Amino acid sequence: MNAYVERVIENVKKKNPYEPEFIQTVEEVLSSLSPVVDAHPEYEQADLLGRMVIPERIFTFRVCWQDDSGKVQTNTGYRVQFNGALGPFKGGLRFAPSVYPGMLKFLGFEQTFKNSLTGLPIGGAKGGADFDPTGKSDSEIMRFCQAFMTALYRYIGPDVDVPAGDMGVGSREIGFLFGQYRRLKGAWENGVLTGKGLSYGGSLIRPEATGYGAIYYLNEVLKHENDTIEGKTIAVSGFGNVAWGICKKAAALGAKVVTISGRNGYVYDKDGVNTEEKLNFMLDMRSSNRHRIEDYAEKFGVPFYKGEKPWGVKADIYMPSATQNEVNLDDAKKIVASGSKYYIEVSNMPTSNEALNFMRSQKGFIVAPSKAANAGGVGVSALEMCQNSERLSWSEEEVDAQLHRMMENIVASSAKAAEEYGLGYDLVAGANIAGFLKVADAMLAQGIF
Ligand code: GLU
Q1: Cα(145) to centroid of ligand 1, in Å?
Q2: Whose CA is nearest to atom 10 of ligand 1?
Q3: CB contact at 8 A, 80 and 126
Q4: Which residues are identified as catalytic?
Q5: For the whole model, what pTM was predicted?
Q6: Could you tell me the CA-to-CA distances from 282 to 50, 134, 196, 241, 415 in Å, in that order?
Q7: Nearest by Cα to 318 from 277, 261, 257
């Protein structure tokens, strides 16, 4: 490996000892960049990697709110503005008890490369709070969101930083956050948040965009292999917004999603999660905040495998879409042993580096990285910003067509970047390289800071 790359990785390990996910993503991304840094000594000269692994700034704030019984609850909120070279900071907010700075740094770092890959002018950020939405009433969610925005509003803005949803933050939360921002600023600021409701500036196709985009990405991979999606079975994990979009588009294209999962197990639906009733039920499960995937098994009479992940199920394609590090080396071995040759990451960093390297080393087995395959979500967020600033809204067909083109370009530019550095059809390294080059050149052009 390039000596400069190694030094930067070592330094990140030393400086962030309690942030394993952040170290994991830095190791994964930077190791792909070794041939690029070999070929471009100017990046070392400008200490570009050393600069890129430190967020431009991080805000940490107290969030106090009253629960339904009148008791005061206290949480910690964050916004990590990772890299703003390409445009306003952009990335989701995650509400989950496990949120801490290391998680948001890993997500913000990934987001910087992902947003670069969309080809649109957006920098990378992530934020959230250690707030657990499970079992909270609508009023509690509203009061939390209002308190969160009261602390955050002075650091964001349409040209500064544009948050959106992520785990635990959907259209309901975005509505409450937007309302509070508007109340505090006394202005309807265009595109200060994305993932808004359609009645107040949201974009058509935004809810579907991550899942649809992942299927469009998959389609490009299948085309490369002279294969088609029709009749394929897909094992998906998760049951949230992303998994829902995958199920919907897969069904429309004649493929079958045979598993979805929750925190405590998965369901196997041999007929596929493909009817309107099943798709709508997924939305109900998510908005109920109950986190019970068993509800699906009970409702549709399909088996539920408690405490298990869906990676032992035989399928043509595997698409982890739940959360980070949900596929470890044992899981990866099962996936490869199934005879499948397609592994498309969709949730952010779902694979341990060990598992990822194992799968990448299998001949003829194709691995697609999440920062590329899930980029359609934030990509359509950028289209939402664009519609807001033009004060108009595009049709469903228009947004979908743009999303489709964006995903085709992401696959093509990743494949081309890997090819240029002699790596063959390596979509993982290619995404890292293509994402990096654009940010690196913008940083170089903007001088030293
Ligand atoms: N949280 C999503 C992501 O991981 C969406 C971010 C956005 O739309 O800004 O990319």
Answers
A1: 18
A2: 378
A3: yes
A4: 126
A5: 0.97
A6: 43, 16, 20, 8, 34
A7: 257
Would you say 377 and 209 are in contact if contact means Cβ atoms under 8 Å apart?
A: yes
Q: Which residues pair with 94 in a beta bridge?
A: 128
Which atom of ligand 1 lies closest to the CA of 166? 1
Q: Would you give the DSSP letter of residue 199? A: G
The verdict on the CB of residue 352 being under 6 Å from ligand 1 is no
232 lines ligand 1 (CB under 6 A): no
**Superfamily, domain 56-189:** Leucine Dehydrogenase, chain A, domain 1 (3.40.50.10860)
Q: How far is the CA of 69 from the centre of ligand 1 (A)?
A: 33
pLDDT in tens, 55-98: 999 999 999 999 999 999 999 999 999 999 999 999 999 999 99
DSSP state of 169: B
Domain pair 56-189 / 209-373, same fold: yes
In the chain, what percentage of residues exceed pLDDT 90? Answer: 97
CATH number, span 209-373: 3.40.50.720
How many Å lie between the centroid of ligand 1 and the Cα of residue 2?
Answer: 32
- Distance between CA atoms of residues 318 and 243, nearest Å: 12
Sketch the domain layout of the chain as residue ranges. Answer: 56-189, 209-373
